[in-house]
Amino acid sequence: MIFELMMSLAVAGRYQRDHLLTFASPDALKSAAALHSTLREVRPTWFFASAKTWEDLKVYAAAAADQAAKAEGFLAWLGFERCRVFVAGSSKMPATAYEWWGAHGVRLLEGIA
Q1: Helices (H), strands (E): how many in the chain?
Q2: Which Gene3D superfamilies match (predicted)?
Q3: Where do the domains of the chain lie?
Q4: What is the DSSP letter of 41?
């Protein structure tokens, strides 16, 4: 949570124009399905999350995305079609996770670990 907060504030402070900074409610992080619902509603342009959140979302997306993603595209299905910057941080993530996201069109950057 601290990583997401600090990185989001730093980015918002650096690029002050035309930005709306939003935070997910605590309920959105209780499950990957809840986060998915929030992402589809908000459709972020920059997304910062902990390595654990990315891992949980990967497991959820790998299991649930096949049918829905084919219909509207994987990034749109997740709520990421407008997203330009994806950052994982707070702890180290395995290289296989970066490879999996990259194969699905998400160039995941590593933040503070």
Answers
A1: 5, 3
A2: N-terminal domain of ligase-like (3.40.50.12780)
A3: 48-85+94-104
A4: H
